[in-house]
């Protein structure tokens, strides 16, 4: 029974490794939450892009099928029908140009996680700490002259 506690040492390392890997590892809960937040941002951006796409489709259809709309856009670009003349006022900003917003480019940052090799090192250090604690405890008990037996 004295040596049974030393069998627990590798299991402590395994337990620490599993807990850290489940929470902070590359496939852990923290990484999942980070990626879920990025997914929501991407879905919101996709919805905005769909609205912009619909507006552009409407403009395209108006330019293809409506001659009045086509003439208005042509006048905005500086074209005129034959026999027509333009009068431009210098010094005023030309505000009738229609700006097209192309959308927003989103780049997803890499999710924050602890590398697997670091998790292994932390687990080995935890197991080594428990082993050292058991050894120090047993050595102190041997120096005192009695060996502590927790189970009997």
Q: How far from one another are the termini?
A: 8 Å
Radius of gyration: 36 Å
Q: Summarize the helix and strand pattern as letters.
A: HHHH
Q: Based on CA inertia axes, which overall geometry fits? A: rod-shaped
Helix and strand content put the structural class at mainly alpha
Layout of helices and strands, plus pairs?
Elements (H helix, E strand, L loop, with lengths): L3 H21 L4 H37 L1 H11 L38 H29 L8
Helix pairs in contact: 1-4, 2-3
Task: Give a written overview of the molecule.
The chain is mostly helical and 152 residues long. The protein contains 4 helices and no strands. Helix 1 (4-24) runs antiparallel to helix 4 (116-144). The protein is rod-shaped.
Task: Briefly summarize what is shown.
64% of the residues lie in helices and 0% in strands. The protein is mainly alpha-helical. Helix 1 runs antiparallel to helix 4.
Main features:
152 residues, mainly alpha, rod-shaped
């Amino acid at each position: 029974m004295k040596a049974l506690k030393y069998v627990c040492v590798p299991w402590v390392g395994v337990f620490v490794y599993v807990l850290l890997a489940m929470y902070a590892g590359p496939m852990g809960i923290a990484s999942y939450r980070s990626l879920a937040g990025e997914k929501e941002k991407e879905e919101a951006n996709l919805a905005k892009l769909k609205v912009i796409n619909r507006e552009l489709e409407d403009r395209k259809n108006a330019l293809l099928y409506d001659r009045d709309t086509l003439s208005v856009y042509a006048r905005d670009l500086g074209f005129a029908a034959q026999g027509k003349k333009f009068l431009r006022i210098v010094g005023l900003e030309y505000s009738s140009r229609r700006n097209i917003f192309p959308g927003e480019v989103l780049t997803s940052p890499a999710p924050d996680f602890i590398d697997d090799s670091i998790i292994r090192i932390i687990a080995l250090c935890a197991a080594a700490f428990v082993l050292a604690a058991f050894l120090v405890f047993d050595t102190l008990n041997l120096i005192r002259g009695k060996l502590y037996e927790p189970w009997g």
